[in-house]
Write a structure and sequence with these properties.
Layout (H helix, E strand, L loop, with lengths): L1 H10 L2 H18 L31 H11 L8 E5 L5 H9 L4 E6 L2 H10 L5 E5 L12 E7 L8 H11 E14 H12 L4 E8 L1 H10 L1 H11 L5 H8 L5 H8 L2 E10 L4
Parallel strand pairs: 1-2, 1-4, 2-3, 4-5
Antiparallel strand pairs: 5-7, 6-7
Length: 273
């Protein structure tokens, strides 16, 4: 059922797609109230031969999801900066960035009031605040942030172009946009061209994360399977297995076959003359 819904969401109009994703996401937020499940991304298996980030013992269970955030945000040098995350979900990524990358302040935005309420109760860190807001109409003045983070969220938006315009608007000159998401192969090529042509922005880094994300889904299968068994009613488990990208799911198969691609970018706001 979920697979059919995801396919349908990709085919309908942008406005309908956004409304349907909002409905699904709110439904998901109501179903999973446990504080255990704070990350919503597909994860990243660290490349062989490279040293993975050191994590505190309490963060090891979420290593693959935390590693994805670390890979995406590290080019931004966020220490002491004012940072915005758009699409904060259940707050695991924002909390990781606040603790490990030490921004002076991190505002984490999400369109779901239920998700934001969960985050406010679950993640109580001094430099971190959660707000309700729209990615396509960011509720902040021009040039408010040194960095904007967006991880595995933009495929839900009605207008990615509107989101990119808003990111450019709220970034300070020289500020960075740290962005990662998945698309079908032809859509990824179009997205790359769109990012390269953004007015006032320049692409600094691009990386294909597809094999690492697929490998993380394989490696993290058992943990996610157990959590779904413990937290989700039996009648909903098949749907959540698809949503979480477990082995055998459509998302996992399509990443493995590269029908779906997963990329990250680091962009810089070009200072005006």
């Amino acid at each position: 059922m979920l697979t059919k819904l995801l396919i349908f969401l990709c085919e309908v109009s942008p406005r309908a797609r956004r409304s349907l994703w909002r409905w699904w996401y709110e439904r998901w937020a109501r179903r999973v109230e446990s504080g255990q499940w704070t990350f919503m991304n597909y994860g990243f298996a660290w490349p062989a031969g490279e040293t993975p980030p050191a994590l505190q013992p309490e963060d090891e269970a979420d290593r693959f999801c935390a590693q994805l955030y670390h890979r995406v945000v590290s080019p931004g040098y966020l220490s002491g900066e004012e940072v915005l995350e758009v699409g904060a979900g259940r707050g695991g990524g924002a909390a990781f960035v606040a603790r490990y990358h030490e921004p002076s302040h991190l505002t984490a935005l999400d369109f779901s009031p239920q998700a934001v309420a969960f985050c406010q109760a679950r993640h109580r860190l001094a430099p971190l605040e959660f707000k309700v807001g729209d990615a396509e109409a960011l509720p902040f003045p021009d040039a408010s942030f040194d960095a904007v983070i967006n991880v595995e969220s933009s495929h839900c938006y009605g207008s990615v172009s509107a989101f990119f315009a808003e990111v450019t608007r709220v970034l300070r000159p020289g500020g960075c946009f740290l962005f990662a998401d998945l698309r079908e192969a032809p859509e990824m090529a179009a997205l790359e061209k769109q990012l390269a042509a953004l007015p006032g922005m320049e692409v600094v880094e691009t990386e294909d994360l597809t094999p690492n994300v697929a490998a993380a889904l394989t490696a993290d299968h058992g943990r996610k399977q157990q959590m779904i068994g413990e937290l989700i009613p039996e009648s909903q488990r098949a749907m959540f297995r698809e949503f979480a990208g477990l082995e055998g799911s459509k998302i996992h198969r399509n990443l493995t076959s590269r029908h779906l691609l997963y990329y990250r970018w680091a962009l810089r706001r070009i200072p005006s003359d």
